[in-house]
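REQUEST
  id: r-88c1
  op: predict_structure
  target: Chaperone protein HtpG
  payload:
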Amino acid sequence: MQKGNIGVSTENIFPIIKKYLYSDHEIFLRELISNAVDASQKLKTLASVGEFKGELGDMTIRVSLDEKKKTITISDRGVGMTAEEIEKYINQLAFSGANEFLEKYKKDAHAIIGHFGLGFYSSFMVSKKVDIITRSFREDAQAVKWSCDGNTEYTIEEIKKEDRGTDIVLHIDDENQSFVDKNEISRLLKKYCRFLPVEIAFGKETEWKDGKEVETDKDNVVNEVNPLWTQKPADLKDEDYKNFYRELYPMAEDPLFNIHLNVDYPFNLTGVLYFPKIKNNIEIQKNKIQLYCNQVYVTDSVEGIVPEFLTLLHGVLDSPDIPLNVSRSYLQSDSNVKKISSHITKKVADRLEEIFKSDRKTFEEKWDDLKLFIEYGMLTDEKFYDRAAKFALLKNTEGKCFTFEEYKDIIKTNQTDKDDNLVYLYSTNKDDQFTFIEAAKNKGYDVLLMDGHFDSHFINHLEQKFEKGRFVRVDSDVVEKLVPKEEQNELKLTPEQRENLTTVFSSQIPQVGKTHFLVTFEALGENDTPVMITQQEFMRRMKEMSALQGGGGMFYGEMPDSYNLVVNGNHPLVSRISETVENELGGKLKTINGRISSLDARKSELEAAKKDKKEEEVPQAEKEELEDVDKKISEQKGKKETLLTDYASGSKLVSQLIDLALLSNNMLKGEALNKFVKRSIDLI
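RESPONSE
  id: r-88c1
  status: 200
  body:
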């Protein structure tokens, strides 16, 4: 028996493996099986070039579990190793500057294993002792057994082993007994090894016999050696892609489309990406793309490898040019990874454009599901925006779809304002904003439906991209002002009538949550709505965007909702209310207005007298008189407001018009809605 020391210039290798890789300790099985796959494929290659002339036979890699002995064994029939090869590949970790290596990478768990060929040593993350029982494929090779119990000392001895290949026996330590479990090993094999290119068997298949589950003689092969993405697209049908998707995501709905990637220059990349169905009202799920390196599972956290917006996709990417175990920061700075990311973006855009051109009908039918991906991509990736602008769609409230250029041509005649800007009218809810949509249509306008997850951001983005174009929500103003033209109606109400009606209407608006209403007057047609509610475009859009950003937009998010109660000053019902005010309160209002006018005149005289004087030069009597005048003006205005409010309180017509406006905006609720119903019955 030979004894020796593993060739590292420090004894810290094992504590570092155990401590710094603890969060990833389950990858030991992946690493050891990957080594077994490599050994098996090397033998196949040697056989193909005539350097191995024996029978390959059964190349299955076997994983076995001994719960009594607390061991896990990985066995292959690959090239095996001689004692000299063990010395070279296992014992000599004496790469240059081992101390520097350990110091540099001990804080980065992902960089230690795989990147520096330490895959085998991952076994010590879970083992108190590891045995290698191996025999080289070479003729007359001597089988050997290597053992190490987690320090730098090892033993190696000659043994008898009839067959070529390697058995790695892990004696699991006390801290990791959870791995000595059939279900846990099955889970790890499914996660990391389900698509490896050499068959891997774990135990035997079972069947139901005489009311119980019994083992058969057939190996339980856990992997698919020729997964869909390794096959030629020409040999595959749509159903093959759907079946593979169901295998990857058993609980998901069928996907919308798939993209089969097959690149061999300037880097190697294969894979299949799927566009899943995502509902706007549920949280977007990421981490659904599985990343492989030569069919070895690496991760499902692919940020940095694929563009941000494509993390919404599902599927598989496989590239030998992506290192197995490196940090996120390394991936994001790696030139190959950047090329791959850029190429995937191009392939996705090309595929979507191809579907759009070849089968626009299907593309439009699936637009509501595709919209989320495409808008997210256009918002976050400039190159994708440029490509997607050819096939991105705008959908109107009637369900018709248009490209950006098509829609521009449709609306330019009617929806160009006096400043030569194209006005894109849109609704965020067809039902809630029905009245406004109908008013716009009656005016000859078209209204887009922008009710998607990203639409409030997307609208802002399009305004920056579209030359001389702006988006206006259909309920943000009266229909005459949505697309401002030169000609305007004349308002029939006098300033005094408007002032009186402002008090009349504002005094009767019911309390609606944390909402502020401003009464305004517009010169609309006699057949237009008498009273309506609009919401100022800028403030509403800022609030919507702040809500999407979570805590990022607290300033706008905390402000009350601000609405305009727009009174159509030219409507007969409004004229009737104004006339009634004049008839019932005219005398009293005239007296009060006369007093206010007289007091205002005296106030102006007093303020003019003190204009060029310092505060101490103004006589005390004048100061007191000015205070008294201000007080009397407030009193008279208070009397006027009380008169108008009392009148409004008794006017069913005023309340009915306000409530109808609130109702059309879905803002009439609770007690106010109940009063409206009773009043409507009375009026009928």
